[in-house]
Design a protein that fits this description.
This protein is α+β, with helices and mostly antiparallel strands. It has 3 domains: 90 residues, conserved putative lor/sdh protein from methanococcus maripaludis s2 fold; 72 residues, Beta Barrel (OB fold (Dihydrolipoamide Acetyltransferase, E2P)); 117 residues. The chain has a 6-stranded antiparallel barrel with strand order 4-13-16-15-14-17. A 4-stranded antiparallel sheet has the order 5-12-10-7, with no helix packed on it. Helix 1 packs antiparallel against helix 2. It is elongated, with a radius of gyration of 46 Å.
């Protein structure tokens, strides 16, 4: 935090009491909070990883930052190696199942042919057995007649078996084919997914503009090898006609920050050119800019009164001063001269007989000074440190 230079008088070593003192004078009390950051567009179009791209994809190439692009230009490309390999493997399994289906069909045809042939032969045998069957004991003995009857029963049972076998094999063959088709359906779904991913490996600009890479959660721009997910913002196409500043203020220096405060911004490339703006957005909580860093910052946005497109370009580094306080002709003292206990505040006021404990009412405070709203007058002299007991009344 920076303060305007104050006019301080009477600060010196007294010849009589040996205590460092300060003569009170009304001065201006200004508090400027330093901030750093960069320029960005107030409005921009996001350039995102295509929706529907399933699974993480590795970034293979990205357009250099701050490149001019036309609508439809490729700004980034994913690595298709893994998806192509997966597609080939799924296509291989799909085709293999197709061959399995053909082989199974040929086997089923052979079995059907064998069953039908056996059925036909058995039917002919059954017909002959019925045709030449006779119960005339004049022609056949009883044993021969019994054997003929047993042969007819066997052939009838054999025909029933073949009929059952034909029906059973038909159902089993259909089930096997259905199972193969079900497996193919699963592979086909994966094939479609990988083909869809391969068709979405390129990220294109939605319109003409200036491509600005979008830093990740760690503040680092995307680089080759980073993992990308569907819908992830990889960059922006900013509207450079209206710019704003994204600034960071140390948590320890943020006293007095509030929306609406005036801000003066300086481009690092043009340090002598002040740009006036207003604090329009302030985070409620401080956070670190770098992962695992113990140093926290408040992030804020500053809008400008006007934009000079010739020099105010996205990504340009800036430093700024947030004018948190500007009080005219007030009494302020160094923080070291103000003492407090249990809510009571006092200073040691110099009198003709020594230093007396003078109660005061503090007001606005900075890192090194405090405004006194009641208890001190211009011309008073106070001690800058606790006076020795021999000098106190």
């Amino acid at each position: 935090m920076s303060l305007a230079v104050f006019s301080i008088a009477g600060c010196g070593q007294s010849k009589t009491d040996g205590v460092l003192t300060l003569e009170i004078k009304a001065t201006n009390f200004n508090v400027d909070i330093p901030a750093t950051g960069e320029l960005e567009a107030s409005n921009s179009t996001s350039v995102n990883v295509p929706s529907g791209l399933r699974g993480p994809q590795s970034l293979a190439w990205i357009l250099p930052n701050f490149s001019d692009v036309k609508k439809g230009d490729v700004v980034a490309r994913m690595d298709p190696t893994r998806e192509s390999y997966r597609l080939e493997m799924e296509q291989f399994d799909f085709d293999r199942l197709g061959l399995d289906s053909l082989i199974q069909s040929e086997k089923d045809k052979t079995i059907d042919k064998s069953l039908n042939t056996d059925t036909k032969l058995t039917a002919e045998e059954q017909q002959l057995a019925e045709q030449f069957f006779s119960e005339d004991e004049r022609v056949y003995t009883k044993i021969d007649i019994i054997e003929q009857m047993r042969n007819q029963g066997y052939l009838a049972a054999k025909m029933q078996f073949f009929d059952w076998g034909i029906d059973q094999h038909g159902s089993q063959a259909q089930a096997e084919q259905d199972l193969i088709k079900l497996k193919q359906k699963g592979h086909k779904a994966k094939i479609n997914r990988f083909e869809n991913n391969l068709n979405k490996m390129e990220i294109v600009a939605p319109h003409d503009g200036l491509f600005v890479a979008q830093p990740g959660w760690n503040g680092v721009d995307p680089v080759v090898g980073d993992m990308m997910w569907t819908g992830m913002t990889i960059g922006t196409l900013p509207d450079t006609s209206k710019m704003q500043a994204k600034l960071y203020v140390l948590e320890s220096e943020a006293l007095g920050l509030a929306v609406g405060k005036p801000v003066t911004v300086f481009l690092d490339a043009y340090p002598n050119l002040p740009i006036n703006g207003t604090l329009t957005q302030l985070d409620a909580l401080a956070k670190s800019k770098v992962q695992d860093s113990p140093v926290n910052y408040f992030e804020m946005r500053v809008s400008f009164d006007k934009t000079d497109e010739a020099i105010m370009q996205p990504g340009r580094q800036v430093n700024a001063k947030v004018h948190a306080l500007d009080l005219q002709e007030v009494i302020s003292i160094p923080n070291q001269a103000l003492f407090q206990n249990s809510g009571d505040y006092w200073v040691y006021l110099k009198s003709t007989e020594g230093f007396i404990k003078q109660k005061v009412v503090p007001g606005n405070r900075s890192l090194n000074r405090t405004v006194i709203t009641n208890g001190l007058n211009t011309g008073d002299t106070i001690a800058l440190t606790t006076p020795p007991k021999r000098n106190r009344i």
